[in-house]
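Data deposition worksheet. Section B asks for the primary sequence of the deposited chain exactly as it was used as input, without tags or linkers unless they were present during the calculation. Section C holds the resulting structure in token form. Section D is free text for depositor observations; keep each observation to a single sentence. Incomplete worksheets are returned to the depositor.
Section A, Depositor: J.P.
Section B:
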Amino acid sequence: MSFRRRSSGMSAWRSVRHGVVLCLGLVAVGACDPAFTMQFRQALAPAPSEDCVGAALRASPLAAVVWPDTIHRGRTVAGGYVVTVRDSLVPGGAWQLHVDQAGTRDSVWVEASYSYMGYATPPRATRARWAAQTRDLLDGIRARCGSTVPLDVRCSNLGPPVLGGQRGACVAPGS
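Section C:
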């Protein structure tokens, strides 16, 4: 009995087809990893001017660079900003934060948020440090822009629940 393999043009096509299916499967699995957004909110009343928020961010020692967020313009009461926050404990020495005003013209929320993919969930200590830095930035805006509302930063995690609980849930500064 001979176990010689028959040569066929179909075997080459079959391996290409299996390779394509494997690649598509890997792309699909990677594309299903959910994104999470940590959002911090501080009420401000009376509502500050857009210039005041930008000036407060630029005056903060935590902010390395502040520039107008032109991508999300129009979704908020006033313009938003992208802030590069100094942090020597992360690779590259900084991380980015989006700051927007939302609400009515009389009383607004200043929202600061950052997003990450589920596979790259920052460790608890990093999230706590970022929460503290965000709180300091929002307190600087509140103080500089003359808000009469006391400091009360609220955190929420915007993202789907995952097996085992919310990945990257809010952590209190210093925890």
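Section D:
The first strand starts at residue 35 and ends at 44.
Confidence is low (pLDDT under 50) at residues 22-31.
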